Amino acid sequence: MSQVSKNSGDPEIDLSVISKKIGDFFSSIATAAFEAILFVKRNLIIFSFLVLAGVVIGFFLDKSEDRFNTNIIVGSNFGSTEYLYGKVELLNSKIKDGDTTFLKSIGVKHPKKLRIIEIEPIVDIYNFVNNSSPNMPSGAQNTQNFELVKLLSESSDINKVIKEETTSKNYTKHMIHVESKGMISNSDSVDPILKYLNENSYYNAIQASLVNNISKKMVENEGIIRQINALLDQFSHEAANNQRNDKLVYYNNENNQINDIINTKNGLIAELGNQRIQLINFDKTIKDYSRIINFRKKQGTFGKMKVVLPILLMILFILFVRIKRFYRYQMRKRTT
């Protein structure tokens, strides 16, 4: 009890101990900082050499890793998705194997610049569900696609369903990634690749037949619209004569027929607009929608080696000196 009361009655002793420890802590920091300054001073020439060597080597490493990316958004028409993925995989294998003869044969002028070509679907589940075939009315929901997604989502996570290969390959748009060493151009690389992807006699025949059918249907729709316009002009002329003769008579049956004719005309106009868009989209088996070429690939230490390497070399040198000192200290302990 007397010991407890003595300790509790002298808080100044505890404070002095704490104050001394804090002072020792800051003193040790100051000593360590001064030793670090002396260490750098003693090895200033070595550190200067390491910084210079690191900057020079890092510059060449950054230059050798001067990679660019090119992204091409494409659409696969006429059920050619599997064909598209297979062609891209073949191209990628030729690039990895360094088969410059093959790449030059398809029109690529600087094949050694190409490093990787890959493809992935652009996830668009809503367009996948609402995507209609050329034979379906414009804006109609694709019931088969909707039921497929609904069925798959009941048995597993919907996020996994929309990203898995069996579903994602049915999306209408896909992204082709091309990685190159140095800059490429449309004429030298992108256009030859897209031309190669469209070289298939089977799909080209389907494309020609479908475009021909759409063009014929457009001609027929335009003819029907002209006939409807002629009927409406005739009705308008007769209505104007009746008004001049003060013999205007309303017939509900005729009015209903005219409304049906007008609705038919509006439907044909909408169908014509959709067919014009189809002709634009179906001019190629693999339709390219947009291109973004030659943007720098910046990942990890890319472009930073001239800064990272000098720091890394100095850290390794410091570790080497510390390990050497530790080794000598342990050896002195063993010999004494």
Tell me the series of helices and strands, N- to C-terminal.
HHHEHHEHHHHEHHHEH
Biggest sheet architecture: 4 strands, antiparallel
Q: What class would the helix/strand composition place it in? A: alpha+beta
Cα-to-Cα separation, first versus last residue: 49 Å
Helix content: 55-70%
- pLDDT < 50 runs, ≥5 residues: 1-6, 134-141
Order of strands, main sheet, comes to 2-3-1-4
Indicate the mean pLDDT.
79
Share of residues in strands: 5-15%
Principal-axes geometry comes out as elongated
Radius of gyration: 38 Å
Let me know the number of strands: 4
* H/I helix tally: 13
SSE arrangement:
Elements: H1 2-8, H2 11-42, H3 44-64, E1 67-76, H4 81-96, H5 100-105, E2 114-121, H6 125-130, H7 143-155, H8 158-163, H9 165-168, E3 173-181, H10 186-197, H11 201-244, H12 252-281, E4 286-296, H13 305-335
Antiparallel strand pairs: 1-3, 1-4, 2-3
Helix pairs in contact: 3-13, 11-12
Textual characterization of the structure:
The chain has 336 residues and is α+β, with helices and mostly antiparallel strands. It has helices at 2-8, 11-42, 44-64, 81-96, 100-105, 125-130, 143-155, 158-163, 165-168, 186-197, 201-244, 252-281, 305-335, and strands at 67-76, 114-121, 173-181, 286-296. The radius of gyration is 38 Å and the shape is elongated.
List keywords for this structure.
13 helices, alpha+beta, 68% helix, elongated, 336 residues, 4 strands, four-stranded antiparallel sheet, disordered N terminus, single chain
In short:
The protein is α+β, with helices and mostly antiparallel strands and 336 residues long. Helix content is 68%, strand content 11%. Mean pLDDT is 79; it is low at 1-6 and 134-141.
